Every structure is written in C-alpha cells, then in structure tokens.
Amino acid sequence: MEERDLAARFEENRSHLRGVAYRMLGSLAEADDAVQESWFRLSRADTGEVENFRGWLTTVVGRICLDMLRSRKTRAEEDLESPATDARAATAGKGDPEQESLFADSVGLALLVVLETLEPAERLAFVLHDLFSVPFEEIATIVGRSPDAARQLASRARRRVRGAPTLPEAELESQRGVVAAFLAALRSADLDGLLAVLDPELVVRGDFGRGISEVRGAANWAKGAVLGAHGAPFVEVAIVDGSFGLVFAPRGKKVVRALTFRFANGKVTSIEVIADRARLDQMEFAAPA
C-alpha cells in the first residue's frame, strides 16, 4: 500500500484510536502522543496481509498505551523515593483545559477516576474488551498472558469499576437524583436550585489534612459554594464508599477532592469535603451504571 493511501486509512481511524488511548491514559496530550507513535509503527510495518485494519491499529495503540502506563507507574515509584522534582512534574497537566474537559465529560469523569486505580494490564483488558470489543485472544498477546488470564484481568477491573452495592437500588437511585441536581445547580450557579436540595440545617465539614472545619446552615454555605464552583467542569457524580457523591479530578487524573453526602427526606443533610490525601487513597470509587 502506498504511503498516501496508508495515511488516508490511518486518518479514517484517528478519532477511534484517540478514544481508545484517552480511556487508557486519561490524558489528552498523552493520548495524542500514543496515536502519533502508532502512525510511526504503522508506517514501518508490512500491513499487506492485515485483514482487519482498525483492529490491527487498536491492538498497536493498546500496546503503546500499556507501555506508557507501566512507565508512568515506574516513574511514580521512583518519585516517592526521591525528594527531587524533575522536569516532568513541571510540565505535567499542560494542554487545553477546555478540550480536556470536553473529552472527560464525553467519556465520564467517574469512569476515568476508577480506571486510574487499576493496574495497567487490568485497565487495558477492561478498556479494549468491555469498551471496544477486542477479543481476549488479541488482548492476551498484548499483555503476554493466556486468553483466560486476560479474561480474569477484565473481570477484576469490571468489579472495581462497578463497585460493590451497599444500598438497595431504589435508595441509590434516589441519591443519584439528589446529587445530580446538586451538581447541576453548582454548574449553573443556581443558588435557588442548590438550596432546593439542601436541608436548611445542613452541616458541612471539610478535611484538608490540617484539621476539620465546619459550616452550619444551608444558606451560609450555599452562597460561597456557588461562587467557588469554577472547578465544576472537572466534578462528576460517582459512587464514593458505596453511596452517591462527587469527585473532583482535574483532567481525569487522580481524585484531589471528594464530597460525601447524608440524605433524609430527599434532601442533603450533611456534606463532608475530603481533600486529605491519606484519606482519599483509602476511599473506594466506582462509576455509576
């Protein structure tokens, strides 16, 4: 196949590959790097006998993303052992915040948050099989395991993504509605809409790792919450420790703040805002169905 025809077929699949890579990496800049690397590999490969061109490219970009995830994990472990801050940290997170927000919203920020907690091989197996229908036989060749082992990786990831239900379905659905209305009011700076889902005697506690702060009264808290909701594009409804809450994860990375709620009579009676890293690392997050 001539290079021009090869490039044209690659461009036909670019958005698909970008979607795969973004779900694997949770970063638009890294996803674009992975897609570009897949083009380099395609341009050097003999694809004359490739029957499923999209499937071949999906496998290639999956393998690239797996290598990137493993490298990221290794760097994180090295950074824990070294107090030095290198150039990677200085440039991390750069890019187009608006475009990143749109991508996170289209995928589901809660899903990205949970995917970030998976081991690289689990994440690949879940993303490729459950989201893009890649057969386990092909996934097995990427992770270097048997098809049955690849199936187990996806199964473990699926349990993490869905979480273990701790409340009756009807109660969870009621919570979902209240939390969704809460978030919609924040995003639209709708003070009346926010107050409508809050109990007048609301208690809000904040844990930022420096002791506990407390605000009492829905009216006292809601005005400041609406004014400070500029981070709402990176806030999403999620299941937090078994019940519905909110997570704040800029650009789909690790959760930096979580909100847990208590409910009574269809309203929020208390909120805990958790930003302490040690506590966040012990919490369990799942993506709503």
TrEMBL record:
Listed Gene3D superfamilies: 1.10.1740.10, 3.10.450.50, Winged helix-like DNA-binding domain superfamily/Winged helix DNA-binding domain
Pfam families for the chain: Sigma70_r2, Sigma70_r4_2
GO molecular function, one term: sigma factor activity
Single GO BP term: DNA-templated transcription initiation
InterPro entries listed in its UniProt record: ECF_Sigma-70_Domain (IPR052704), NTF2-like_dom_sf (IPR032710), RNA_pol_sigma-70_dom (IPR014284), RNA_pol_sigma70_r2 (IPR007627), RNA_pol_sigma70_r4_t2 (IPR013249), RNA_pol_sigma_r2 (IPR013325), RNA_pol_sigma_r3/r4-like (IPR013324), WH-like_DNA-bd_sf (IPR036388)
Superkingdom to which the source organism belongs: Bacteria
Residue span, RNA polymerase sigma-70 region domain: 10-73
All copies of domain RNA polymerase sigma factor 70 region 4 type, residue ranges: 110-160
Region (Disordered): 75-98
Matching PANTHER family: ECF RNA POLYMERASE SIGMA FACTOR SIGI-RELATED, SIGMA 19 FACTOR
Assembly and binders: Interacts transiently with the RNA polymerase catalytic core formed by RpoA, RpoB, RpoC and RpoZ (2 alpha, 1 beta, 1 beta' and 1 omega subunit) to form the RNA polymerase holoenzyme that can initiate transcription.
Protein name per Swiss-Prot or TrEMBL: Putative RNA polymerase sigma factor
Originating organism: Labilithrix luteola
Organism lineage string: Bacteria, Pseudomonadati, Myxococcota, Polyangia, Polyangiales
